[in-house]
Design goal:
By secondary structure, this protein is an alpha+beta fold. The protein is built from 5 helices and 4 strands.
């Protein structure tokens, strides 16, 4: 493109912007305001009625002992299972002093069952087993759903 082409292009843009300015001036604002007033008047004529909604029932209360619960919808949801042998709290000074060979004392006694957590919630206790050179856990006590709810509060 030559400089003359750029100049002509600039003139075309200037003319287009000027036309747009003329078209979108005070008349456009007035037209927009009139349209908004017309819409508000139409809404006012229709009148608003209060909506009423049916109360939702608690599913736990509506299920009876014989009712089957469809668990198929959640069977493929992945969860994280972790085993915890113990916990402790230490201050940052002691944490920074840890190195290879350091021993950290936990709040459990040797031989005490491990906690089995699913997504951070205690669901069972168990003991460590070794099968084909891999660690596993044998569940010794499964926490009932009622007991899990009690632990949440």
């Amino acid at each position: 493109m030559s400089e003359d082409d750029n100049g002509d292009l600039g003139d075309d843009w200037a003319a287009a912007m000027e036309e747009q300015g003329d078209a979108g001036g005070d008349d456009a604002g007035a037209d927009w305001g009139a349209a908004m007033e017309e819409q508000a008047a139409a809404d006012g004529q229709q009148g608003a009625e209060a909506m009423s909604f049916q109360e939702l029932e608690d599913d736990a209360e509506t299920l009876e002992a014989g009712d089957d619960i469809n668990l198929d919808v959640i069977l493929d949801v992945p969860v994280t299972i972790s085993m915890e042998i113990g916990r402790t709290q230490i201050n940052i000074r002691n944490l920074l002093q840890l190195n290879q060979g350091s021993v950290v004392e936990l709040d459990r006694l040797a031989g005490e069952p491990m906690d089995v957590l699913v997504n951070g919630t205690l669901v069972a206790h168990g003991e460590v087993v070794v099968v084909n050179d891999k660690f596993g856990i044998r569940l010794t006590d499964v926490i009932s759903p009622a007991e899990r709810v009690k632990r949440l509060t």
